[in-house]
Amino acid sequence: MIILATALSALAVYVYEVIAGRTLGADEFAPIGVLWTIGFLTFTILQIPVEQMITRRLVVFDGDAASLWPSRFVILGTFAAAIAASVGFIAITLDRFFEGIWGFVLAGGLLAFNRSILSTSRGLLAGRRRFHGYAGAIAAEAVALVLLATIAALAVPTQLGFAFALAFAPLAVLAARPFTGPRGDVVPVEAKADSGAGFLGWFFVATASSQLILAGGPIVVGAIGGSAAAISVYFITFTLFRGPMTSSYNLLARVLPDFTALAQHGDDRRLSRWATLLGGLGVVLAIVFAISGAILGPAVVNLLYGAEFEPTRVVAALGAAGVGAGLAGLFITQIFVARGATFSLAAIWIVAVVASALTIALVPGSAIVRVAWAFFVGELVALAGLSSVATVEHTPAART
Length: 400
Hints:
Blueprint: H1 2-60, H2 72-92, H3 94-97, H4 103-127, H5 131-155, H6 159-168, H7 197-214, H8 217-223, H9 228-241, H10 243-248, H11 252-264, H12 268-305, H13 313-339, H14 342-362, H15 367-390
């Protein structure tokens, strides 16, 4: 069920982008691309870690919601930070990226708020192994996104119309009734777990570093001198190519509970074997995706979005190869999360960011080419680090 819902979610993203891109054109689509990027970054850096902490905590404590009580301030503080980061970035860069339209500030705040509800809901569903409900939540959000984009195209074919369509779609998760289920005491007699601040703190560093490489490209392209059209080309190309990877965030809900169970039982040998297998798979995927991206990528982008969005073959190959490596790395990351080894995870991704930054500084060419190389190098370095460290890392004894 989750796999089918994930496929629907990926399709919905493409349909939304096709509708918005063809309605607005490359120049006017640029603010939507940046808004999507900011929403994706805050979601993956701050909100998905909370979702995964909730999932892991509920697995460890047999679905008892009381185990989340000690983390309430950390969770709420994280969501407040996500909203503040989204609103603050848009306000500061309003003239540079959003054509001075203040409505984007409201849209960005709503997107972050509603995705806080989304991540909490998905964590509750996955942690209690309500996988049919989780799949239903994914499918509901996908349908809502396409429906709202269609309404925007027909009734409000403006930048803000598509911005608010994106912002309200996450609320469809409530159709899965995620907040129903077993509850422990509101205030446990003994703390069932620590606040999770240490676990989440290093997790935030890791996700911030990884998402800077994965999704920060459009902003970096603009920062190093790329035009609005260049930002749109990069955003459309890399969002299209990383569709399998982005959609795979939904599959993590199925993987993390099982990896957590293995970690809690001290079965590090099986987890290490999974790390080795996934590392090898990542290399194979990077090669296959690079060849496919170079041959088919520009034509596919042209077909879906029009010639003004078409990338070069080099950019397409680098983007596709990076996604292949990153897809495997995403699942190896769940081994670190299951073990609670977020410090090691953060260290690996910091090294990858340094490698990406050096690539931008040293590789010649246009802004798009330099950032594409940085994306590929960063994902490859991260895959190497994740697969090697995961084979020797062990699960701490403490329950968090």
